[in-house]
Amino acid sequence: MKEMLLALVSNKVADYLEIRVEESTISSLRFRGPVLEAVNSSMQHGGCIRALVNGGWGFITFNDLNNLEEKVARAIHQAQLVGAAGGNGRLAPVPVVQDVVQVPFLEDPRQVKLADKVELFRGYNEIILSHGKQIVSSS
User: Fold this and answer.
1) What's the pLDDT score for residue 139?
2) Kindly report the CA angle at 29 between 25 and 35, in degrees rounded to 5?
3) pLDDT-derived band at 105, boundaries 50, 70, 90
4) Could you tell me the sign of the dihedral formed by the alpha carbons of 92, 95, 98, 101, in that order?
5) What is the pLDDT of residues 10-35, one digit of tens each?
6) What pTM, to 2 d.p., does this model score?
7) Domains of the chain by range and CATH?
8) What is the C-alpha end-to-end distance of the chain, expressed in Å?
C-alpha cells in the first residue's frame, strides 16, 4: 500500500501533494421494534488527497481505493484552478513525515464479540423504544 501511494505522489506537478488513507472495520445492527433485523460487519477504506499548486489548494475525499490516480489528478487540477485565480496558500519548509498512526484503545472494539455488541445494543434499543409507540426502528 505504501509503495502504491508513494508512486501516486511522485513526479506530479504540485508544490505539495498528500494522500491520507484510513481503514475502518464497521459493525452495524438494525432493530425493527424489539426484533433484531440485520447484523453486518465490513471493512472499508477511505481518505483524502490534498494538493497545492501555485498557492491554490485542491481537496478530494474518497471512500474506496479505486481510481486513485484519477482522484490525485482531480485534486491537482482543482489546485491549479485556484492557483491560477490568485490563490495564496504557502507552506513552511519542513521535513517530510511518513507515519502510520495506531489509535490506542482502552478496549479494542474489534476484539469485542459480536454477540456482546448485540446484547449491549438490544438494551439501547429498549431504551429508544420506551420513548413512544411512534418509534418503530433503530440502527
Assistant:
1) 86
2) 165
3) confident
4) negative
5) 888 999 999 999 988 888 999 999 99
6) 0.71
7) 2-91+106-134 (3.30.2290.10)
8) 33
